[in-house]
Amino acid sequence: MRLDIDIAEERFGAVTADLGRRRGRISAVEVRNKGRHVVAEVPLSGMRGYASDLRSLTQGHCAFVMDFQRYAIVPEEQATEIVAKRQQEGKIPAR
Q1: How far apart are CA 32 and CA 7, in angstroms?
Q2: What burial letters (b/e) apply to 11-45, b meaning 16+ CB within 10 Å?
Q3: Which residues contact 84 (CB under 8 A, 6 or more apart)?
Q4: Does the domain made of 2-88 have the CATH classification 3.30.70.240?
Q5: Distances in Å between the alpha carbon of 70 and those of 5, 41, 56, 88?
Q6: Any idea where the domains of the chain sit in the sequence?
Q7: 63 CB neighbour count, 10 Å cutoff
Q8: Crossing angle, helix 12-21 and helix 50-58, to 10 degrees?
Q9: pLDDT tens digits, residue range 21-42?
Q10: Alpha-carbon distance 29 to 71, whole Å?
Q11: pTM of the complete model
């Protein structure tokens, strides 16, 4: 997913650290007025609960837009976990 985030300068570090935790990659940072505009790509799986978390990190002083960017291959370690979980649930037959 592509994220466009407008944040206050003093919250920039906390928001970028949170994006890193979600396996996000920042592609652009612009200074705007008294804040920053961040453009990043983050996997959709990492975006669950993002609005609430971002509101908490910034005390509600932010805005973001999320748009579909592209499909990408899931990392091998994560793919193995997903398959194992689906097999336990009976959604995928064991090989």
Answers
A1: 9
A2: bbeebbebbeebebebeeeeeeeebbebebbbbee
A3: none
A4: yes
A5: 18, 9, 28, 29
A6: 2-88
A7: 13
A8: 150
A9: 999 999 999 998 889 999 999 9
A10: 23
A11: 0.78
